[in-house]
Amino acid sequence: MGRTFAADELRGHGSAVVISDGLWRRAFQRDPRVLARRLELDGIAHPVIGVMPPGFSFPERAEVWLPLPTHEGTGRSAHNYSVIGRLKRGVSLRQAQADMESVAAALAREYPADDGHLGVAVVPLRRDPATFVAVALVLGIAALMSTYLPAQTATQVEPVEALRAE
């Protein structure tokens, strides 16, 4: 129901959230008008723009997704992110690898000091357990960190107010 993040939201513009089907059922009683509501996290009201389908759980047990904010003008030295994507129907792994190598080469030309030594590997998530574990670990840590501050705030207020939708 609803949608996932638009390109400008993924670049850190806006404060929209996507919620899990489980959270929608528990906290919003399956109200289809949830898309017109806001979810307060750490004192900030975020518009709910979508509900993920039942069974979607990545990273495991995540219930709220926010875009990772990026800031223009900051350095390009943070190379500690993994990316998960879905291949377009009909695109082979070999084609995806070639496309990503082209992107990596363009970035290396544009930013030789930061990206000149980097490469890219396109691997199937289900066939490479080490990648799956590494990606799950990175996303799990990100989810943990993104819930730490709201959890700290939630312990200081009444439980009913900890997760309030406006």
Structure description:
It is a single chain. This protein is α+β, with helices and mostly antiparallel strands and 166 residues long. The protein has six helices and four strands, in the order αβαβββαααα. The chain has helices at 7-10, 21-28, 93-110, 112-115, 129-154, 159-162; strands at 17-19, 38-41, 44-51, 64-65. A four-stranded mixed sheet has the order 2-3-1-4. A hairpin with a 2-residue loop joins strand 2 and strand 3. The longest helix is centred in the C-terminal third of the chain and has 26 residues, at 129-154. The model has no long low-confidence stretch (mean pLDDT 78).
Keywords:
alpha+beta, 4-stranded mixed β-sheet, 6 helices, 39% helix
Question: How are the secondary structure elements laid out?
Answer:
Layout: H1 7-10, E1 17-19, H2 21-28, E2 38-41, E3 44-51, E4 64-65, H3 93-110, H4 112-115, H5 129-154, H6 159-162
Parallel strand pairs: 1-3
Antiparallel strand pairs: 1-4, 2-3
The whole-angstrom Rg is 18 Å
Q: N-to-C terminal Cα separation, in Å? A: 19 Å
- Please count the beta strands (DSSP E, at least 2 residues each): 4
- Catalogue the unreliable spans: none
Shape: globular
Helix percent reads 25-40%
What is the number of helices? Answer: 6
Strand order of the largest sheet: 2-3-1-4
Strand content: 5-15%
Structural class by SSE content: alpha+beta
